[in-house]
Amino acid sequence: MAQVLVIDDDPLFREIAQEMLVQAGHAVTLADNGDKAALLPAEPAPDLAVVDMLMPERDGIETIGDLQARWPNIKVIAVSAGAPGLEPGLLLRAAKALGADATLSKPLERAPFVELVRQLVG
Predict the structure, then answer these.
(1) CATH code, domain with 31
(2) Dihedral, 104, 3, 59, 113 alpha carbons, nearest 10
(3) What is the pLDDT of residue 71?
(4) Domain that holds residue 26
(5) H helices within the chain, ranges in order?
(6) How large is the average pLDDT for residues 45-68?
(7) How far apart, in whole angstroms, are the C-alpha atoms of residue 112 and residue 102?
């Protein structure tokens, strides 16, 4: 069982991701943006974070950097659905170049998401 932190400003995405992860046997903590994630207790340290790239207050790139500074061993999956005029692939390539371990486009598909989590945290 892994400790997974899901950071996304979309409550429906958080709920769906949590359901998939809990059904796969993981413990899940939710935050609706990077600022709120920064206020979480240091323990238990998350093994993995699922981070949306476009959020208010603190974007995904900044949030990923903060997570890696706080928990150097954390694995990160960056996720994005893009935005008007901004395709998700561009955001996800940037996330990968700046430290994300893996990327996924939204909406998540259960089997690939759960398998990617398994690959990253064992």
Answers:
(1) 3.40.50.2300
(2) 10
(3) 96
(4) 3-121
(5) 11-23, 34-38, 60-70, 88-97, 110-121
(6) 94
(7) 12
User: By C-alpha distance, which of 16, 10, 39 is closest to 28?
Assistant: 16
Query: Cβ neighbours of residue 18 under 8 Å, at least 6 residues apart?
Result: 6, 28, 30
Structurally, the chain folds into a number of domains equal to 1
Query: What pLDDT does residue 87 have?
Result: 75
The position carrying tokens 């998700």 is 88
Tokens of 9: 């400003």
Q: What pLDDT is recorded for position 88? A: 75
Give me 109's structure tokens: 């598909």
Q: How far apart are CA 50 and CA 35, in angstroms?
A: 15
* Lowest-confidence pick of 62-71, 78-87, 105-114: 78-87
- Can you read off the two tokens belonging to residue 71? 């928990």
Residue 85 clears pLDDT 80, i.e. is over it: no
Q: Which two tokens stand for residue 46?
A: 């998350």
Q: Which amino acid is at 4?
A: V
Cβ–Cβ < 8 Å for 2, 47: yes
